[in-house]
Amino acid sequence: MTSRLVQQLGAHNVAGATAKALAEQVRALILDGRLTVGERLPSERALALELRRSRSTTTRVYDLLEADGYVSRLHGGGTRVTLPHTATSADGAPDESAIDLSIASMDSTPGLYDATVRSLPRLAAMRGTSGYSLRGLPELREAVAQLFTERGVPTDADEIMITSGALNAFNLVLATIGRRGERALVEQPTFPHALEALHRHGYRLLPTPVDVSGWDERHLTDTLLHERPHLAYLIPDFHNPTGATLSDVERSRIAATARSVGTQLIIDETTAELDIDRGWTPLPFSAFSPQIITVGSMSKIAWGGMRIGWIRADRSVMARLLATRPSFELGTALLEQCIAVELLQEMPALTAHVATRLHAGRDAVASALGSFETISMPQTSGGLSAWLDLGAPVSTALSLAARDHGLILPPGPRFSTGGVLERRLRIPITLPPERTAEAMDRLRLAWDDVMTGGTAAGAEMPRSAVI
Fold first, then answer.
1. Is Nucleotide-binding included in the keywords of this UniProt record (predicted)?
2. What does pTM read for this prediction?
3. pLDDT at res. 88
4. Are 167 and 192 in contact, with CB atoms under 8 Å apart?
């Protein structure tokens, strides 16, 4: 059985690599979270057998990682992932100069403060209650249900549950309907934390390709028909990270195929409202099948710090969700729910602000990339990011070089299931233009290092999540 380390490395990507190059690849996996702190790695002998390399080579790999603080080795206890101490500045304070491109999210909407003030009387009126809210506030569930209804899917408040963000919603769904050892169809690339959640719930993953031009619908439907996975996780609107959108015709066919083989579709609509200039609006996936489970969030249209998400599901699934939820939380914070009620009354203003910000961010990235001869930026009509083609399989090398210039940049394989997509790079379009310009200046320095084979001497930046 292939170890997780070799799955993440992708044996084809490290064939013939030196011990130093292998150590760099493992370090990249650790820094961007594909290998977790405390995780046990294969023994030197086992790794040598998997990679078909000599024992001395794998011993050297672990020696290099241990010397830099990325693994610890105990006699009889194996080799485990660690992180070196976080770099500090001259005055002993943490180095905060890095630009973090692993997070594709904007700062808060200008209306957040006023919405918070307006929400306080609503919150005060609930002081005499227990404060627990498994389903969510009725008025917030009504507002979310109205969003679905306005988009073409009549929805009742009883079909909505309010959660602490979309990822929390996804984990609650998996805790409720999940089956360890079953298969799950996932897009490749996709949202990394969704992959981690599926792994944690014991799923075996079946990737189906997505690119800036869209999905390989035949591959997706053939996988559903022949593999009959228990569930499929899809991001159909401004897909993260490619920005692609499924057409209504594709949604209809995929929903029908999934229904025919008994695959539960879980649709992530976190990015559905991030339209810049797509020029058309698809129906929600749930319009094509009543059994579809949809998760959504306020984090991209209002603020990531306001942890409000939701689940739309039929009443039978909702009953199971309500039975499962108390085992790990008793509801969502009331203040955030009260603020969300106010914000959802201003959806046109929210989405207009988001479109303006994303348009400026997209233009800033496109302008900066004009000086990169071999990197192409695809048409990006909305979403969080641009999914770049680097023209060569250098994504991990570029990510490592970027850290030496104070730029945290997840490589393409971070968004995959098995060490592929080395030609690809996700660049957020969510930063202010001036911050984007600074980040791209640092990317240019890293790019020059990779292209010339040089390295910059710099302190390690801390590992961060990819959003």
1. no
2. 0.85
3. 40
4. no
Distance, CA of 416 to CA of 395 (rounded, Å): 13
pLDDT, tens digit, 9 for 90 and up, residues 276-318? 999 999 999 999 999 999 999 999 999 999 999 999 999 999 9
46 touches 3 (CB < 8 A): yes
The answer to whether 71 and 41 are in contact (CB under 8 A) is yes
- The CATH architecture that domain 4-81 belongs to is Orthogonal Bundle (1.10)
Q: Pick one of 3.40.630.40, 3.40.50.720, 3.90.1150.10, 3.40.50.300 as the CATH number of 99-108+349-452.
A: 3.90.1150.10
Domain boundary assignment for the chain: 4-81, 99-108+349-452, 114-345
* Radius of gyration of the chain from its Cα atoms, rounded to whole angstroms: 23
Contacts for 458-461: CB closer than 8 Å, 24+ residues apart: 458/403, 458/404, 458/405, 458/406, 459/87, 459/95, 460/31, 460/84, 460/86, 460/87, 460/403, 461/31, 461/87, 461/95, 461/98, 461/403, 461/406, 461/408
CATH for 114-345 is 3.40.640.10
Measured CA distances, 76 to 43, 73, 79, 138, 304 (Å)? 11, 9, 9, 56, 43
Q: Find the angle CA(10)-CA(15)-CA(20) to the nearest 5 degrees.
A: 95
The size of the chain, in residues, is: 467
Residue 148's H or E segment, with its range, is helix 138-150
The total of other beta-carbon atoms located within 10 Å of residue 430's CB is 25
